[in-house]
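> tool_call: predict_assembly(chains=four)
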Amino acid sequence: MLKISMEKENKVRELVRQKFTEYLTANKFRKTPERYAILDLIYTDQRHFDMDTLYEAMNERNFRVSRATLYNTMQLLLECHLVLKHQFGQNLSFYERAYNNDFHHHLICSHCNKVQEYKDAELKTAIQNKKIKGFIPEHYSLYIYGLCSACARELKKNKKFNKP
Amino acid sequence: MLKISMEKENKVRELVRQKFTEYLTANKFRKTPERYAILDLIYTDQRHFDMDTLYEAMNERNFRVSRATLYNTMQLLLECHLVLKHQFGQNLSFYERAYNNDFHHHLICSHCNKVQEYKDAELKTAIQNKKIKGFIPEHYSLYIYGLCSACARELKKNKKFNKP
DNA sequence: ATGTATGCAAACCATTTGCAATGAC
DNA sequence: GTCATTGCAAATGGTTTGCATACAT
């Protein structure tokens, strides 16, 4: 079972590497080891991540890259749609794999800022099937803001205490 | 006709002022002239704006406020849902009125970064009617990324030129 | 050999913070 | 009178940039 899922992971990594190569070739960008190492790490360990965690993770893997290279490469990965970028209100950007990553929406708690994934095939289809005049859609992000159960509970409790 | 819409605008301004007052009172925050001036300007001139334009606009209106106050007030307006915040990939935050502002989604061109509003009642209902287990939704943002017509045309043209 | 990509350090810039002065309560 | 709020200026921190070096082509 574990073995099968690892084989699948390897296959995905292989595939995205191919896609990346195509993109680099098509645009006459160089195929540097740094770029592939970053892509590999993202498709091995990191489902959701920010730049800092990625930077640390690269170091731990003994493949040191500069932050400049990280940002440069991320730009390329965004352009060829192998990575998605999110900003949930704070000033920190989050990224996630875009390929073979079960597509999901995001629930953001306006109280504790926690982010959860939210899968809903119905919404997904509804949004993806929209024909929009004068616009060719590539991908989308749906962020739903509200209260997570923990915060809802907490706020309710506090209300009780505050009663006169 | 113009008169009627101006009367409507005044009414909305009146209403949001009331809502803001309720919020400030409920939380024992002070009702400073700066706070109301900022709210007023937003509900007069500014449908979509970033902090810098708002800052300039306040100055032009001869109501000078510091950037610190602007950020502080915006925080309050976000909390009481009179203003919405958006981040479309760049590091600049955009804001818009949340009250009596025909609700819309956003189309973002991944090529020129232009943002257009996109109204779709069907999607709106579909998203708003979702019951989500363990989460109480307050509001949501849907961002659709892709190519605007101008960029689609331009890219097509360039492709032709590049043919061998 | 050529010129793109890298690493480093400095620069950038939106946002946040500390603190003294102001003014809402 | 008290203490939250303001303005100012400095600090913060994620991201970008300039430049010399390394290395993909």
